[in-house]
UniProtKB/TrEMBL annotation:
Domain of life: Bacteria
Domain Amidohydrolase-related, chain residue ranges per copy: 3-327
Protein name (database record): 2-amino-3-carboxymuconate-6-semialdehyde decarboxylase
Single Gene Ontology MF annotation: hydrolase activity
Membrane-spanning parts: none
Subunit structure: Monomer.
Record Pfam families: Amidohydro_2
Pathway of action: Secondary metabolite metabolism; quinolate metabolism
Enzyme class at the top of the EC tree: lyase
Keywords: Decarboxylase, Lyase, Metal-binding, Zinc
Amino acid sequence: MRVDFHTHIIPEYLPDFTEKHGGQRWPTLEKTCACGATIMVSGKNFRDVTDQVWCPKKRIADMDREGVDIQVLSPIPVTFSYWAPSNQALEMAMIQNNFIAETVAEHPTRFVGLGTVPMQDTDVAIQEMKRCIEELHLHGIEIGTNINGKNLDDPYFVPFFQMAEEWNVPLFIHPWETLGKDRMNHHNFMYTVGMPSETALAGASLIWSGVLEKFPKLKICLAHGGGSLPYILPRLDQGWNVWPHLRLTTYPPSYYAKQLYFDSLNYDSMNISYMINRFGHEKILMGSDYPFLLREIDPGKNIDDTIQLTSDERADLLGKNTLRFLNINLKRSTEYVSSLQSRE
């Protein structure tokens, strides 16, 4: 059973919010051919995409070829639109959440969905999170690493994390609007350096501020293997040790980092081994970043190449950990296997 936790999807026909609401930062999807499009932001090409990013049948064909049983669908972070008025951002979020829920409903054995919420308004975000879970039957929420420059430890977001813990809603934290953007214009460093650094800052903020101490049952998964966070934890601990006047937690950062989950997208089996040793194999979820260029092909390759794993550990990393994280009864995997066998 292979469950790809980290994949992205967008509706094929995304409304033009620039025309509807004004402003230039709304993402639009402009078709270039029957099987391709460009995501445009502020009149510029943000990213070229193929029909893999909106077509469930194309995704399923890729999944069958690459041995993936289930994909977890989440929005593309450029659509978060935290900069917009919350009512407009909510409209953008609802379009995507409804689309993801419909895609899952059409292919319930192949897809699981995560929603998105307008984090610039905590009250609205909480209400949409509730709708995602209770009405749309999505299994978690994807949020960005910062909201309009505010780190996730800002007191404004505490009620959101409180309700996510109370309702047992898993959160997938994905980098966007990365720090140091003005220094990363060349070499696509925004993706290879900026995003890992941005994710480390988000994780460190949640740890150092005491958010994770305050909400010990909060389920959070950091994208891209946690970025650089796993590798700077000893430095964070050293800072905690030598600056007692800055401490906001009972224990050093590495203690709380063990509450976090991480996808496996770090491209190196040595890094997988390091993360297993530091956090435990049960905290690693297989994720590929399908369908983008930086994705891992085939999904789970790093885990396959990690030779010291037992068969049970490998099964957990490739799928069971994700199902547990998303509060999906493992019976679902048995039902899926049975459905495959019935087709044969």
